[in-house]
Structures are given as C-alpha cells and as structure tokens.
Amino acid sequence: xxxxxxxxxxxxxxxxxxxxxxxxxxxxxxxxxxxxxxxxxxxxxxxxxxxxxxxxxxxxxxxxxxxxxxxxxxxxxxxxxxxxxxxxxxxxxxxxxxxxxxxxxxxxxxxxxxxxxxxxxxxxxxxxxxxxxxxxxxxxxxxxxxxxxxxxxxxxxxxxxxxxx
Amino acid sequence: xxxxxxxxxxxxxxxxxxxxxxxxxxxxxxxxxxxxxxxxxxxxxxxxxxxxxxxxxxxxxxxxxxxxxxxxxxxxxxxxxxxxxxxxxxxxxxxxxxxxxxxxxxxxxxxxxxxxxxxxxxxxxxxxxxxxxxxxxxxxxxxxxxxxxxxxxxxxxxxxxxxxxxxxxxxxxxxxxxxxxxxxxxxxxxxxxxxxxxxxxxxxxxxxxxxxxxxxxxxxxxxxxxxxxxxxxxxxxxxxxxxxxxxxxxxxxxxxxxxxxxxxxxxxxxxxxxxxxxxxxxxxxxxxxxxxxxxxxxxxxxxxxxxxxxxxxxx
Lengths: 165, 315
Hints:
The complex is a heterodimer.
Chain A: H1 3-6, E1 19-23, H2 29-37, E2 42-44, E3 50-52, E4 55-62, E5 65-70, E6 73-74, E7 80-81, H3 83-93, E8 113-116, E9 121-125, H4 133-138, H5 145-150
Antiparallel strand pairs in A: 2-3, 4-5, 5-9, 6-7, 8-9
Chain B: E1 7-12, E2 15-20, E3 34-38, H1 43-52, E4 59-60, H2 65-69, E5 77-82, E6 86-92, H3 104-112, H4 116-124, E7 128-129, H5 153-162, E8 169-174, H6 179-190, E9 195-200, E10 211-217, H7 224-233, H8 246-256, H9 263-276, E11 281-286, E12 288-293, E13 296-297, E14 312-313
Parallel strand pairs in B: 8-9, 8-10
Antiparallel strand pairs in B: 1-2, 2-3, 4-12, 5-12, 6-10, 6-11, 7-11, 13-14
Helix pairs in contact in B: 3-5, 4-6, 8-9
C-alpha cells in the first residue's frame, strides 16, 4: 500500500508519538477489528446507542417494509458507495446458511428481499415483520466490489464463508 | 482491502496494525493514531507496561477486578472503568429431570439469600452496579418499576429447607476471574446454613454442579433480548443449562414481530418474565476495566468492543 492510500504520514513517521498499542485478550477481539475496519448501515456508539452509519436514515414504511437512505461515501479506491453496494452486501450474506459466528439469530429470513430503488434508496421487505432488522444490519458488512472479488469472507482453509463473516 | 471503515487494516499476524483511513466520510470519527493490537504480549506484561510507562503498551482490555485493584500507584498509567452493557449472572443447572432448580420458587429462594451489594463489594471491589435482572436502569428496555430481588435470608432459609436443601453445599462453576465473587456468595449462603464450593471452569462441566457463572455483554443497537436473554434462555441458547422454555420462546417470537413502537414494551415484558420466574441467580452488571497509559485519551465503548476511532494521544 502506498502512503496516501494507507494514511501513512510518510517518511517513516509512524512512531510512539502517533501509535496506540493495545492488548485485547477477548476471544472475540476479531469482531472489534472487523468493526474498526469495516462499515455497516448502522453502528453502536460508545454510549451503547444505535446510530446511522453508511445509512444516514431509515424508516419503517409499514410493518414489513424498511426503507433506508444511503450516505454519499467513497471507498478508498474511488469506487462510490451507493444503494447497489448495499444490495451486493445483502446478496452476499444471503448466499450462506449461517454466515455469522455469533449464531443464526443474526440471519435474515430466506424470504427477506432487498431492492435498490435508486442510487440512495434501499427498500427491504420482511414478510411477517422483523423487529431485529436493525440489529442484523449492524452485522452486515458493506465492503467494496474489489473486496468481494479479491477476498470476500471465504476461509481459505475451508473455501467457505459459513461462520466466517 | 477496501472496506470503508474508520481504519485500514495493514497487516494481521502476531500484531494487527490499523492505520487511519484518510478518506473516511466522517471526520469526527477519523482516527488520528495508528492502532497496533499486540497479540503476543501477555496480559500481565501489558498491565505492567502501562504502569511503568515503558511505551510498549498503552491500553489493556478486560482486566479482572483483582487485576484492577492490584494496579500500582503510578503517574504513567491508570485504571479506567466503564459502565458497559454487561451482566454477571448464575445459570441454574436444570439439566437433570428431577433438578430442584427447575422449580421457580427454589430459584427465587436462592436469589433471596444473596446480598448483591455485598457480593459486588466483597467479590469485585465494587466494580459494578447491582441491577434488577439483565438490563441496567436507564437503558433501552429497562423497566423503571423493577428493582433487584430483595435480600431476605430468613425467607430464603425457610424455602430452601422446605425444598430439602438445608445445609447443602452449592457447587458453582466459574471462571477464575470470579472466584472472589463465588466466595462472597458463599458468605451469604453461610448465614442460612448453606455453603458454596468454587469449581474452576475448564470447559467440561462436572455433572453435579448447581450454578454456572456467566459474564456476558450486549453489543446490539437497543435490542438486548436477542443478544443476552435469548443466549441464556432461548431455543437456540448456547448458555442454557436446562430444557427449552416455551413461554420464553413465545415472548421472543412476540418481540420479533412487534411493531417498532411496541418493541421496548415487549423487552420490558421479557425482563419482568425472567425476574418473576427467577430464571437466573441475578448478581450485578460488572464495569469493564482497563489499564490505560496516561499519554492516551481512551474512549471505551459500552458494547465492550475495542473500537478505537475516538482514542487519541493527549496533547
């Protein structure tokens, strides 16, 4: 990675004065690293409160329909983030039976649908309703096309992304 | 990797190095420092490094109460606490068909034997908050009308003797981190003629255990039941030590299909249900504890995650 792409101040300037070293013995510290380096539609702030993130707002249109407005953002390689990228993330997670290590309670039901209405608008339908939708979206990562093409969440040892998101 | 988070992952092995993402859309959350996760140095060595100010480690997560209490006086580092969304609770062993712990009245009686503030003060140096069940007062889903179960040793003694538990040794499996908590529970039980035996959790539970202590946390955006209550009592719970509970499962289904405006009311209903049925030995919400270098302004998260976007070097 070049200095510009990684935020390196250049000239080998990373040092004690601008580095924080942490020891996190938690068995789920991988999740913290994921949430430092990935982004989702929403997040939870340091006071434990849900906040918009790549979605700048959302609204339940009725008991089964959630509409989200996506933020104007750009990935590090210049690819724009838009509703299509959200739809791509949803389609990718739905390819797997149990993608999330914490368990199936984070899965979207198989009959949940996701439509990119326009560049900024996503409409998700949850037949029967799902009050856990925003919790599930917190675990649905929204990386770039290049991430999906070159990495994905595939475990190289197993060739599978089951339990590996 | 192109992921649009606040940081860019640079390498991952014995160390994970994350550098600030200069194009991140939200300048307020753009880190100003490089973060290094040191996955090799031991926790004890990390704590010692913070206290000495040798520059190797700036923040150590998840200290036990004993580790925090033992942190030396230092002008280089400090203990930082956070009232995070956590619980420390006892799971009753209801696995055997004839288990006394399948009776809510017996579970309630043991709860009445516990002086929670004493357990917190004696077993965890006060690093925590006594709460009614699984949700802290003031949080989403907390019921303002709920209080912790009372400490009523005489009622506890009467009920437990009636259930044939008089003089009984209660076997409590726990992480060594909570050994002092088990000992404090034992002191409470000793006042009614019972005792507690600590068994270190090595993953294979002894057949005759009574209670397993579990620390757990809620990382969700205001949806605690899915993360915590379900994990202890739900059909797909990983921490349940007994049969499925159709009443709990029905409440969870009700929650899943509740309209947004009614969600918090159903969360409160779940919280009341687990207290009314004394589904667990309720204890307290432990603070999360950190050793932090004085040169760092560290922003801990209530979710217990080591998210570090707002952490800065002072000055």
